[in-house]
Design goal:
Layout lengths: L3 E5 L2 E4 H23 L6 H23 L6 H6 L6 H19 L3 H26 L13 E3 L6 E5 L2 H21 L4 H19 L7 E3 L2 E2 H23 L6
Antiparallel strand pairs: 1-2, 3-4, 5-6
Helix pairs in contact: 1-2, 1-5, 2-4, 5-6, 5-7, 6-7, 7-8
Length: about 250
């Protein structure tokens, strides 16, 4: 574990913060390439930048809501990890949509162009979660189990490195999305598939994650994941009823 890369006086540069920043920069670069490939306006990058900031705010706020009562509010705000991917996705997309509407950008094509960037940025961010010891899974005897003695919260028991599970799955999803886009799969289909895959991955991993159950065996992340899958399926059905699906 490397929760802190270095300090400048009392200011800590955390591994989580560094990886989130790298994920955002790589994601913006990938998005720029996809915009160019699809001959979409480069101003989409401005909407993406706004989305990054909106996503950071949304990620922190939803994580705080999920953990209210576990620690003082100040500690939650200043936690070196403490970011919800769902909050980031919802906050980032909502902010980006506002800017996209103002810029008169085509919504579905622009969002489809962003899907590989979202998957890659999310995957890199999960590396940060691993380094800081956040969002790990339940105890395991498997040989790749990892203990996080300085984690959030600390544990000396070997647990599932669910951050790495999700990272690996998301890199595969990113590769598929790029492949589908190169083959000319319809934008709504690409977007729908991304939502279904990202939601299904998190839904499955959540069963071995350490998270509070709020509805039987399900966590808040389970419910949001299911919502993403349903939205993705609705997009796929809607696109399928309009015209034959492009092979992919």
């Amino acid at each position: 574990m490397y929760p802190t890369f270095f300090r400048i006086g009392t200011f800590e540069v955390t591994s989580f913060g560094v990886m989130v920043a790298i994920g955002a920069l790589v994601g913006l670069w990938v998005f720029g390439r996809e915009l160019s490939r699809s001959k979409l306006p480069a101003s989409g990058g401005d909407a993406a930048m706004a989305g990054v900031f909106g996503g950071l705010v949304g990620a922190k706020l939803l994580w705080i809501v999920e953990h209210l009562g576990e620690s003082p509010l100040r500690d939650l705000l200043l936690s070196r990890g403490g970011m919800s991917w769902f909050g980031g996705l919802l906050g980032g997309v909502a902010t980006a949509l506002v800017f996209m509407r103002r810029m008169r950008l085509p919504i579905i094509p622009t969002l489809a162009a962003a899907t590989p960037a979202l998957a890659i940025g999310h995957a890199i961010g999960r590396i940060g979660c691993f380094l800081v010891g956040d969002d790990y899974g339940r105890p395991t005897d498997l040989p790749w189990g990892v203990a996080f003695p300085r984690g959030l919260p600390p544990t000396d028991v070997r647990v599932h490195p669910t951050q790495l599970y999700e990272m690996a799955a998301l890199f595969i999803v990113a590769w598929l999305l790029i492949r589908w886009r190169r083959r000319g799969v319809a934008d709504a289909i690409v977007l729908g598939r991304y939502l279904v895959l990202a939601g299904a991955i998190r839904f499955a991993i959540e069963f071995i994650r350490v998270n509070e159950r709020i509805l039987g065996p399900f966590t808040l992340a389970h419910l949001v994941s299911a919502g993403l899958v349903l939205v993705g399926l609705a997009l796929l059905v809607w696109r399928g009823t309009r015209s034959p699906q492009t092979p992919g």
